[in-house]
């Protein structure tokens, strides 16, 4: 069973890659495949259980877009076929239509999801997040995480599905409770860092979706104890989700 990391040389901010390493620690038959910017993504030709891409710099967004553009049609086909993929942080915006940075810079996107993003490089948004994820059985999982970004993302298709529903914090933008996007098994969220480690129920969901031999997690007891404590703290009534 293989997990592919796309572009770890640039898409590796906030400890994002630990999401994949944690899944490997939890299931010893997982092999990690790293695809660099000069290579064709392995999942287009091989059986890959999960494709992962993490946060990057603004320059990294351009490099990732340029690397994926020649394979756009094949990527769309794989998504339509149900390929399991996870994008975290600003990697989400690579798959939208474009990113407007301040007034003068525009980065093209792949146009795989109907969104656009607007960044203001003088103002960084920092917050924690609490929301709900509905799994394939219709059961809700509470999600906790963090955001650190220069702007927000705006859907242009009202029918696009969200990944999470916000209960505390900010969604896709300041006006929406929807957080992230979901297209078949393509899961996209602006949450950063080791969001899989922070959310053991979501980690278990991913292992089951990958058809792993077990959904038992590494350090599972400690992971759930931390998760439950964080949920309790984040949900304190007088605690603001925003910080400097």
Q: How does this model look, in words?
A:
24% of the residues lie in helices and 29% in strands. The strands form 3 sheets. Strands 2-1-3-4-14-13 form a 6-stranded mixed beta sheet, covered by helices on one side. It has a 4-stranded mixed beta sheet with strand order 6-5-7-10, with helices on one face. It has one domain (2-234): Class I glutamine amidotransferase (GATase) domain (Rossmann fold, 3-Layer(aba) Sandwich), CATH 3.40.50. The protein has 6 helices and 14 strands. The model has no long low-confidence stretch (mean pLDDT 97). The protein has 244 residues and is an alpha/beta fold.
- Give the terminus-to-terminus CA distance: 41 Å
CATH class: Alpha Beta
Shape: globular
* Overall average pLDDT: 97
How many beta-strand segments?
14
**What is the CATH topology assignment?**
Rossmann fold
The tally of domains stands at 1
Task: Find the structural class using helix and strand composition.
Answer: alpha/beta
Number of helices: 6
How can the largest sheet be summarized?
6 strands, mixed
Low-pLDDT segments, ≥5 res: none
Strand order of the largest sheet: 2-1-3-4-14-13
Oligomer: single chain
Reported CATH architecture? 3-Layer(aba) Sandwich
CATH superfamily: Class I glutamine amidotransferase (GATase) domain
Notable traits:
244 residues, alpha/beta, four-stranded mixed β-sheet
Question: What's the SSE blueprint?
Answer:
Blueprint (H helix, E strand, L loop, with lengths): L1 E5 L11 H9 L4 E5 L14 E4 L4 H11 L3 H9 L4 E4 L9 E4 L3 E4 L6 E5 L5 E10 L5 E10 L1 E5 L8 E5 L9 E2 L1 E3 L2 E4 L5 H4 L1 H10 L10 H15 L10
């Amino acid at each position: 069973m293989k997990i592919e990391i796309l572009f770890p040389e640039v898409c590796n901010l906030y400890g994002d890659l630990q999401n994949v390493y944690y899944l490997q620690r939890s299931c010893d038959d997982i092999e990690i495949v790293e695809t660099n910017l000069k290579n064709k993504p392995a999942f287009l030709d091989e059986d890959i259980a999960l494709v992962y891409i993490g946060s990057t710099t603004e320059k990294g967004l351009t490099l990732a877009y340029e690397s994926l553009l020649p394979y756009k049609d094949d990527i769309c086909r794989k998504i339509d076929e149900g390929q399991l993929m996870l994008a975290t942080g600003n990697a989400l915006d690579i798959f939208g239509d474009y990113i407007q940075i301040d007034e003068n810079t525009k980065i093209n996107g792949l146009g795989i999801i109907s969104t656009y993003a607007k960044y203001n490089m003088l103002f960084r948004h920092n917050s924690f997040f609490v929301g709900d994820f509905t799994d394939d059985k219709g059961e809700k999982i509470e999600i906790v995480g963090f955001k650190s970004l220069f702007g927000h993302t705006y859907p242009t298709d009202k029918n696009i599905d969200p990944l999470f529903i916000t209960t505390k914090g900010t969604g896709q933008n300041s006006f929406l409770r929807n957080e992230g996007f979901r297209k078949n098994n393509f899961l996209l969220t602006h949450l950063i860092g080791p969001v899989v480690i922070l959310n053991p129920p979501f980690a278990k969901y991913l292992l089951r979706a990958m058809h792993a031999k077990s959904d038992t997690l590494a350090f599972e007891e400690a992971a759930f104890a931390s998760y439950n404590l964080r949920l309790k703290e984040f949900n304190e009534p007088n605690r603001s989700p925003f910080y400097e």
